[in-house]
Amino acid sequence: MPETNRTRSSQDAALPRGVTDPLLWRAAYDVAAAHRPDAAGRCSSLLCAGRPAPCEPLDAARRAMRLAGDAGRRAEPDTRVGAQRRRAA
């Protein structure tokens, strides 16, 4: 059986302080990472077929990342190492 566990980019990303919904933040982070603009300013995701950036999924991911945090607190990077962050999330 093939290995189905894949490491997503959000697994190694520092969870900002003030995030109240880590699952939403990490899911949105992965979408944002998949829809980064290329050098020509177009979405690099195959799902967007080269549409100009920012595409709708990237806008939605950015909005979700903001909603996942506590608006009353300033988001600061979490300085814990990867394994500690994963345990905390």
Written overview of the protein:
With 89 residues, this protein is mostly helical. The chain is built from three helices and no strands. It has helices at 22-34, 56-67, 82-88.
Question: How is this fold's topology laid out?
Answer:
Elements: H1 22-34, H2 56-67, H3 82-88
Helix pairs in contact: 1-2
Brief account:
The protein is mainly α and 89 residues long. Helix content is 36%, strand content 0%.
Largest sheet: none
Order of helices and strands: HHH
Helix count from the secondary structure assignment: 3
Q: Mean pLDDT, rounded to whole units?
A: 79
Helix content: 25-40%
Total E-strand runs = 0
Question: What characteristics describe this protein?
Answer:
single chain, globular, 89 residues, mainly alpha, 3 helices
